[in-house]
Specification:
By secondary structure, the protein is mainly alpha-helical. Helix content is 80%, strand content 0%. Helix 2 packs parallel to helix 4, helix 4 packs antiparallel against helix 5 and helix 8 packs antiparallel against helix 9.
Amino acid sequence: ALVRSNGLDVARVRLRSAIELHQRTGRDSGGSAAVTLAAGLANTDQVSESFALIEHFLATEPPDLDLVLRARALAMLGHWRSLVGEPAEAEPLFAEAMQTLELQQAMPELAEAMVRRSVHLQILERHEEHIALARHAARIAEEYDVPGVALRASFALGASLLARERFAEALEEHDRAIAQTRERGDRMWEQALIAGRVQCLMFLGRWNEAAELIPGLLVDLGAVFAAWVSPWAAQLALARGDDELMEQAREAAHRAFENGLP
């Protein structure tokens, strides 16, 4: 709940305490607290720390101790490998994770892994597969009442519609999901979806509306999503001769580079 409402600093302290408790009792991986903290950090400026936690978890956690938790970590690592340009390394991680989760009938976790793999498919420009998988993940998430995963699926689906130049549909998808984030107080995914909305508005030529949103996003968003907004910010800054906005775009791109994102 703290992560969802942008209370990540408080959540991080509590989760680190839980990790230390696990480690003092002989579970060096940090257990579920390590995976939860990694998930919370993944969309912030601590991307590298997030995936260091996941790699340590997978290296130290006995493979058969918690099959579902391990599979969730594998899907997260696959997502990271894909984001940093290592799709060949990502594919077997997704395959193992999704097979395990389906065998264990861990449907909320399977839906989450499906969303992560759908992003991988988008990166590979396999857009129809991406759309189909994201939509199926959203259906599972809604059926099993996992609204956070459903929102992530909406974000992924909107991104794929953008890639297919279906801009009006993408905007509609983002707006529908933004309304849901506000209903449940999910500030983190509201900001991410607004970042996607900015891209829709730019493609549709609604630059004034995008310009109202961009500066706040560059400050508030973590490295991953700010990296997606920064090219549009730079384009807008160049067109308008806005040096301050251009500097904000550069800083956002630099944060992404520092976190290992291409």
